[in-house]
Write a structure and sequence with these properties.
The complex is a heterotrimer. Chain A is mostly helical. Chain A has 6 helices and no strands. Chain A is elongated and about 55 Å long. A 5-stranded mixed beta sheet of chain B has the order 3-2-1-5-8. The chains are: A mainly alpha, B alpha+beta, C mainly alpha. The complex binds heme-A (HEA) (2 copies), dinuclear copper ion and copper (II) ion.
Chain lengths: ~180, ~240, ~575
């Protein structure tokens, strides 16, 4: 396996354990506290769903970018990567509206342990979204010049992982009521 | 072995000492054997001029046997140790025998509060005796304790009983002991609990029935001026 | 973690063709050997910090209330901070950097026959994060309230609230430093694993890789697979400290025991993370100096993997009496005792390797043998603790302290000394002095036992941990007990004094030692086919080819009692 891709896989592996720790801890608590359902009622399922849709779409454009890159079409790959970055940005915008509303309604990170988990898990995930976007900016800039095209796939891999984490967070934090 | 140094003052102290002795015998034997073989080989095979080392891959069955045999032996001895250890564990930590009396132990930074049931032998009545850093119990009576903490983790350790249990804020942990010898001994806090962790000693006083009755009478609050003690708060923790 | 940004720069790393300046050469280098040296020297400097703290608090234990020369009076606050810092530093800033980062960085490319790590810049970043973490930790001593004193296990609620620990800033700095150190080692681990998977010399098959490289790789994977939950836990604890969340606060619906699970889920594998590299070092040295093939190479590998896998299922043996469901203790007692089997097997294999050898008691060999002898005692005393019934008494006594020092000291110091004395000629191109090496050896091993045997006895007699003054406990001031404490402290002073011998020998040899040949020990592995010290790029005569496993010593078909991995098979046997 190419070295870069191998390293991304190992990076993902170690990140999985980190998220595993957060989600495992959350699940243990959640099972011990059925009353948290009263708190999770106040999360906005439709905003979460919208974000899920946005992330899935951005993953699709990451796949298309990889396709373009493997055909050697760096220009197109770069464009599609920028589309993916746009998806990430849209995700963050939705997220910030969501959090603003919730904080205004009095649900802050310290108001209850459910909300602590809610903000912590989503916050760590959000940082990964930002990190992925920054990485893709560099990769896209290179790809546009036709350089380092193999990195398009690696960045995409990472983005799929970020997406996948959200697929776990969404039902656990929003749907389970 | 332990009782040579630390008195043994509960019904299960001897059982714990025996497990320790058994482990000492087993691993002591293996430890000495391994060291003997090890040093023996070093002396036997010290480099000598013109003697070449042997070429042994260790992959052939008759060579592997030398590792496989001790391997199985270790397994057998492990099983023996586990069985003994778990038996004692059940006795001390899982089975709760019927109690003659119950005391409440409350840890906080950096003191112990003990709530004794008083002359009526019931907790949460007006004649409860609350003491700080001194626990009074009666010889040959089975006690339950209800352990909790007001702030951080502490640990309730009575070495002469071979008893130890962490105290967790927000939770009440139950356990038991039955003293078998009179005297005064250390109670230690064995979980780091901040700056005063080193100055959180208490004493346990094990008395005969008569002495304990006297102590009860002398210390029970006069019913008239004593307000009923409230049980410690028990906020919801994880089970 | 935006590391993916750097992740791919690796292969475009071109060798600098201009003369590098001082900064570029020593401080900003991407050469794996220079980064290894940075880790080694930082680790040694931190060993002095770990040694100084233990000196201060052991003096207090032996002579309570005295003003310790070079430190002053050790108050209760100081004591806790010193113990906490000592434990954290020794594990995270000495054992890990020296055994894994320094040796891994130095040996992996040389032993698998490539010119550098696959991601040299990632490597440099990892060291820099590590250095920053060390600085933060040391700096925490000088902030208001002082350094964190809640033990290296940092159990909440004590660690979560400044009103409990009274070291608000110190706690946060400790936590941040540890988390940063983890990040550094995660990056380093990814680099190691990728390098070994993709950059082995042509011809080097799985089972031709030297055991020490395997061990470092298994340790890195073990670290990666176990540290995640604790990183998550560290974030949660940081929020508890800084934002007032209640993850570990029962009053807010949190659970303090959760931290213990997250910590020990990492903490137990962590002890094998440091054990395995040391075991690997010992394997290299005993084969070379007994001129023997390693007894059952594959068995060593499988037991290491077995230990690694099992180590994920034993963590709660640290929490038997911490308030977990007592029935859970049964499960963990069983798994804990089972882990003795692979570890024992590894030890037996090493002992078996000596059989039929031609043993030369050089300084590195003495260290390697001492490792086995001393580690055995540490290992078997673990059995007392793994047996749940016995642990009720031993938990948090000095018996535990002595148990883990009989494992950690052999690993962190005996293992490092073995490695340093063995690879010194390669690292610095100079030979170390044997006589002084042996003086240092005996001057370390003998006092070491005189420190920790008394601590076993004290543990049996009931001394519990992290107590700054035993005079508060009448039962712990019985006849002879203070004498044992004093004996341990005096032995420590002797041990520390002999470390001066090591440091002097180290630096004098470094500058004045006789020049080392390429392969002074007649060893087989690839690093000995590079010049001493290897230049940038490692193998000036071209990257090597590998023809056989690393331990073909005293092969019956050969006159030489060694057979380098690089020597073509076609060459006629010199019988
Ligand atoms: C690298 C360090 C290291 C290593 C290798 C080990 C190895 C082992 N440890 Fe240890 N341990 C620590 C470091 C280490 N430990 C630390 C730091 C702590 C305390 C942390 C703290 O609280 O601060 C600790 C605490 C600790 C506890 C918790 C004690 C308590 O707090 O109450 C337990 C309990 O089970 C335990 C068990 C074991 C076991 C079973 C092994 C096994 O791996 C040992 C296996 C080896 C052998 C058994 C020897 C060889 C075998 C033979 C010669 C054959 C004969 C054997 C039999 C018949 C069984 N350890
Ligand atoms: C790798 C781990 C490691 C090592 C090597 C040591 C080494 C030593 N430790 Fe420590 N110790 C811990 C890990 C370690 N410790 C941990 C985790 C704790 C628990 C902390 C807690 O409770 O939170 C602990 C706690 C602890 C206590 C218990 C304190 C208490 O509970 O109150 C004591 C008591 O005596 C002690 C003593 C010693 C001594 C005398 C040494 C001596 O062996 C030290 C000798 C020092 C040196 C030899 C350094 C100088 C050497 C050089 C500069 C040479 C060059 C260096 C290299 C080549 C690397 N340690
Ligand atoms: Cu209370 Cu330690
Ligand atoms: Cu352990």
């Amino acid at each position: 396996m190419p070295t870069g891709r191998l390293a991304v896989w190992w990076l993902i592996a170690s990140e999985i354990v980190i998220f595993g720790g957060v989600l495992g801890a959350y699940l243990m608590h959640r099972l011990g506290h059925p009353e948290w359902a009263n708190q999770s009622m106040h999360t906005s399922t439709w905003k979460g769903a919208l974000n899920t849709f946005i992330l899935l779409t951005s993953s699709l454009s990451a796949v298309l970018a990889h396709n373009a890159a493997s055909r050697g079409d760096g220009k197109r790959a770069a464009k599609l990567l920028w589309a993916t970055i746009g998806g990430g940005a849209a995700f963050l915008v939705v997220k910030s509206f969501e959090w603003t509303a919730e904080i205004k309604a009095g649900y802050t990170i310290s108001s209850n342990t459910f909300w602590s988990f809610y903000y912590t898990a989503a916050g760590i995930h959000g940082l990964h979204v930002i990190a992925g976007m920054i990485v893709m900016m560099f990769v896209a800039a290179d790809a546009a010049k036709g350089k380092e095209l193999q990195r398009v796939e690696n960045a995409g891999l990472y983005w799929h992982f970020v997406d996948l984490v959200w697929i776990f967070l969404f039902p656990l934090l929003y749907i389970a009521k | 072995m332990i009782d040579q140094y630390v008195e043994s003052a509960s019904t299960y102290a001897g059982d714990i000492d025996n497990v320790i002795l058994l482990i000492l015998a087993i691993v002591g034997f293996w430890f000495l054997l391994a060291q003997a073989v090890f040093f023996g080989l070093i002396f036997k095979f010290k480099a000598r001029p013109n003697v070449k080392a042997q070429y042994v891959s260790g992959e052939k069955p008759h060579e592997k046997r030398w590792v496989a045999l001790p391997h199985y032996a270790t397994l057998v001895f492990d099983v023996l140790i586990i069985v003994m250890a778990i038996k004692v564990w059940h006795e001390v930590k899982i089975n709760l025998p019927e109690a003659n009396s119950t005391v409440r132990v409350i840890a906080q930074q950096w003191a112990w509060t003990f709530v004794h049931p008083g002359p009526d032998n019931k907790l949460d009545t007006a004649d409860d005796i609350t003491t700080v850093d001194e626990l009074h119990v009666e010889l040959n009576k089975t006690y339950h304790f209800e352990l909790t903490s007001r702030d951080v983790l502490h640990s309730f350790s009575v070495p002469v009983f071979r008893l130890k249990q962490d105290a967790i804020p927000g939770r009440i942990i139950k356990g038991w002991f039955k003293p078998t010898q009179t005297g005064q001994f250390d109670i230690q806090c064995t979980e780091i609990c901040g700056i005063g962790h080193g100055i959180m000693p208490a004493r346990i006083v094990i008395e005969t029935e008569a002495a304990h009755r006297l102590w009860n009478q002398a210390n029970a609050p006069k019913l008239a001026d004593a307000a009923p003690t409230t049980p410690p708060t028990s906020a919801g923790g994880m089970p | 973690m935006s590391t993916a940004a750097h992740a791919d720069h690796g292969h475009d790393h071109a060798h600098a063709h201009h003369e590098p300046g001082f900064v570029e050469k020593y401080l900003w280098s991407t050469d794996h050997k220079m980064i290894a040296m940075q880790y080694l020297f930082t680790g040694m400097a931190m060993a002095l910090v770990g040694g100084f703290t233990v000196y201060a608090f052991r003096m207090q234990l032996a002579f309570p209330g005295m003003s310790v020369p070079g430190y002053g009076r050790v108050t209760a606050t100081d004591y806790n901070a010193l113990v906490t810092t000592h434990g954290s530093v020794m594990i995270f800033w000495v054992a890990m950097p020296v055994l894994i980062a320094a040796l891994g960085n130095y040996l992996i490319p040389l032993m698998i026959g490539c010119d550098d790590m696959v991601f040299p810049r990632l490597n440099r970043l990892s060291y820099q994060l590590f250095l920053i973490s060390a600085i933060i930790l040391v700096a925490s001593f000088y902030v208001p309230g002082g350094a964190f004193g809640g033990a290296w296990t940092s159990y909440p609620p004590l660690s979560a609230k400044a009103e409990y620990s009274l070291t608000g800033l110190g706690s946060s700095m400790w936590l941040f430093a540890v988390a940063l150190e983890f990040a550094a080692f995660l990056l380093g681990g990814i680099n190691f694993v990728t390098t070994v998977m993709n950059s082995r010399a042509p011809g080097m098959k799985m089972f031709d890789v030297p055991i020490v490289v395997w061990m470092i790789i298994i340790a890195s994977i073990l670290f990666m697979a176990s540290v995640g939950p604790l990183i998550a836990g560290a974030i949660m604890l940081m929020f508890d400290q800084q934002l007032g969340t209640g993850f570990f606060d029962p009053a807010k619906g949190g659970d303090p025991v959760l931290w213990q699970h997250l910590f020990w889920f990492f903490g137990h594998p962590e002890v094998y993370v440091v054990l395995l590299p040391a075991m690997g070092i010992v394997a290299e040295i005993i084969t070379v100096f007994s001129r023997k093939k390693l007894f059952a190479y594959k068995t060593v590998l499988y037991t290491a993997i077995g230990t690694g896998v099992l180590s994920f299922f034993v963590w709660a043996h640290h929490q038997f009496i911490a308030g977990i469901d007592p029935r859970m203790a049964n499960v963990f007692s069983v798994t804990t005792l089972l882990i003795s089997i692979p570890v024992a097997e590894m030890v037996f294999v090493y002992i078996g390797t000596l059989y039929g050898g031609s043993i030369r008691l050089t300084t590195p060999m003495l260290w390697a043998l001492a490792f086995i002898a001393e580690f055995l005692l540490g290992g078997v005393t673990g059995i007392f603790l793994g047996a749940s019934g016995a642990d009720i008494y031993f938990h948090d006594t000095y018996f535990v302290v002595a148990h883990f020092h009989y494992t950690f000291f052999p690993i962190a110091f005996i293992g490092s000394f073995a490695a340093i004395t063995y690879w010194f000629p390669k690292m610095f191109g100079k030979m170390m002095n044997e006589t002084w090496g042996k003086v240092h050896f005996w001057g370390t091993i003998i006092p070491f036992n005189f420190i920790f045997i008394p601590l076993f006895l004290l543990g049996i007699r009931g001394d519990h941990r992290r107590i700054y003054d035993y005079r508060h406990f009448p039962d712990l001031m019985k006849a002879g007990m203070q004498d044992l404490r004093i004996l341990a402290t005096i032995s420590l002073l002797v041990l520390l004094a002999f470390q001066v011998v090591f440091l002097v020998n180290f630096f004098v040899s470094l500058f004045r030692g006789p020049k080392a040949p390429m392969n002074p020990w007649n060893a087989n592995t690839l690093e000995w086919q590079a010049p001493s010290p290897p230049p940038h790029g490692n193998f000036p005569q071209g990257l090597p080819n590998v023809y056989r496993g690393p331990y073909e010593y005293s092969h019956p078909d050969r006159k030489d009692d060694y057979w380098p991995q690089t020597e073509p098979a076609s060459e006629p046997a010199k019988t």
